[in-house]
Specification:
Layout: H1 2-25, H2 30-43, H3 46-58, H4 76-89, E1 91-93, H5 100-110, E2 114-117, E3 129-132, E4 142-144, H6 147-151, H7 154-160, H8 163-173, E5 178-188, E6 211-217, E7 228-231, H9 242-245, H10 254-258, E8 266-269, E9 276-279, E10 285-287, E11 294-303, H11 322-330
Antiparallel strand pairs: 1-9, 2-3, 2-4, 4-5, 5-11, 6-9, 6-11, 7-8, 7-10
């Protein structure tokens, strides 16, 4: 234990030095990012909480001129309720759904545009194979669309411009948010066992200091289609026990996670297409192994800072959404990762 704490304390100056470099060059040194992860595991999340409070002092929230949208009206009482549930449970399922027409168009896109076929556990591949996904003959567990391609999609640009998402994210983060990771992927029943590469084992995310993800189901997800799964409350500081955190940033089998949490904490989101889930994936989560068919998910992440893990730069080739053009002018920080 003493050795672990000593190593952790040595991570602190690395983190601070890396933060200074980030402020100057807008780039996170790998050693500083690793120090952030190490301190998170050592302090059970409290180090991230301190950093988030500091960020909130400098990145003051926007005052949005319009608050409603796909997620419904955003009056003060409802916003407070959503934030409260997110802080307590780590997730929130919206009654409102992504409109059918948008689901249809994104599904059509996902069955007609190339995506990366991701190598599975034990496979070695220098690069991902680009294919058009054929749900009748899957050849891998996971297929991912390139973020650069998604950014040019009109439907996704319109979702970016929907202030109800930014409002929920800003309330939870306590700071001006930035959209920093956008992804869409298929999970299939190609394998008869869970796949680590496809994130089908429990894990926590730690790419940023604080963030909120929106998962949008673009196909119906039943218990056999690999519902997204989450351990309620595990996002809170101190909730993940040292027995798991000492493994570091690792995939965890169900049995070792179930030993540490009550059965009622394990949530599986079986739900119809269009369902929207907000989640703090600092908590333990996974995509359950797909036994039948497949599932298509769109994920949009808002963070309080771009400090953290390296992601290849993606940018808007062209803003085709007229609504987004206006929002970029009004709230440039939200879209700064892609401009």
């Amino acid at each position: 234990m003493f050795k672990r704490w000593t190593h952790g304390l040595l991570s602190l100056p690395k983190l601070v030095f890396g933060l200074l470099i980030y402020l100057i060059y807008k780039s996170t040194p790998p050693f500083s990012y690793q120090a952030m992860v190490g301190l998170f595991c050592l302090t059970k999340g409290y180090s991230n909480d301190v950093l988030s409070k500091i960020i909130s002092c400098f990145k003051r929230p926007y005052s949005f001129s319009e608050l409603g949208g796909i997620l419904g009206t955003m009056e003060v009482k409802r916003r407070s309720h959503i934030s409260s549930r997110l802080r307590e449970d780590g997730y929130y399922i919206f009654e409102e759904k992504l409109p059918e027409g948008i689901c249809d168009r994104l599904l059509s896109y996902a069955t007609s545009h190339p995506c990366d076929m991701i190598p599975m556990d034990g496979e070695i591949s220098a690069k991902h194979t680009q294919v058009i996904y054929n749900h009748e003959v899957p050849q891998a567990v996971r297929y991912e669309f390139k973020e650069q391609d998604l950014l040019n999609n009109l439907e996704i640009q319109n979702i970016f411009a929907d202030m109800s998402f930014a409002t929920v994210a800003q309330d939870y983060l306590g700071a001006r948010p930035v959209i920093d990771v956008t992804s869409m992927w298929w999970n299939t029943s190609f394998s008869d066992k869970p796949d680590m590469v496809a994130a089908q084992y429990y894990h926590f995310d730690m790419d940023r200091i604080k963030w909120l993800k929106f998962f949008i189901y673009l196909t119906d997800v039943k218990p056999t289609n690999g519902p997204h799964s989450f351990v309620a409350g595990s996002h809170r500081s101190g909730a993940i026990p040292s027995s798991l955190l000492k493994k570091g940033y690792a995939r965890l089998i169900d049995e070792e996670v179930k030993r540490e949490f009550s059965e009622e904490n394990f949530i599986e989101f079986s739900a119809p297409r269009g369902t929207i889930i907000a989640e703090d994936t600092r908590g333990l989560h996974k995509g359950k192994h797909v036994k039948e068919g497949d599932r298509l998910i769109l994920q949009i992440q808002f963070s309080n800072s771009l400090f953290g893990a390296y992601y290849p730069k993606s940018s808007f080739d062209k803003v085709v959404s007229e609504t987004l053009k206006v929002k970029v002018q009004q709230y440039p920080d939200i879209y700064s990762a892609f401009i």
